[in-house]
Design brief:
single chain; alpha+beta; Ubiquitin-like (UB roll); five-stranded mixed β-sheet; 12% helix; globular
Length: 119
């Protein structure tokens, strides 16, 4: 299975993705949780531009954690600086699903960009 769904909470937005054709954006790894969120107009704060140099895109993976790429040492170091870290925490810019299961991802309230400029 390479096609999977990712549900973003609390936005209750569910999108389909294909692990064989990763979404690319200017921020985050191709196919990352951040890339999928941005592609679907869901803003997650990412102060460093999605290059694993901060912890602002910290998310909690409620379901499907084992289908994600392994966290690098650099990502784990950045997560040490994030508030509210759990055993299911990842940086959205670095976590890429392999498509073996659906995901449920919670965006903590401090990481939600609720400001919409220019609208």
């Amino acid at each position: 299975m390479s096609t999977y769904r990712i549900q973003f909470l609390p936005a209750d937005l569910t999108v389909e993705a294909d692990a064989d054709q990763p979404v690319e954006t200017r921020d985050g790894l191709p196919g990352s949780i951040l890339a999928l969120a941005l592609k679907n107009h869901l803003e997650i704060d990412h102060a460093c531009g999605g290059v694993c140099a901060c912890s602002t895109c910290h998310v909690i993976v409620k379901e499907g954690f084992d289908s994600l790429s392994e966290a690098s040492e650099n990502e784990e170091d950045m997560l040490d600086n994030a508030p509210g870290v759990t055993l299911q925490s990842r940086l959205a810019c670095q976590a890429v699903a392999d498509g073996s299961s659906d995901l449920v991802v919670e965006i903590p309230h401090w990481n939600r960009n609720l400001v919409s400029e220019g609208h």
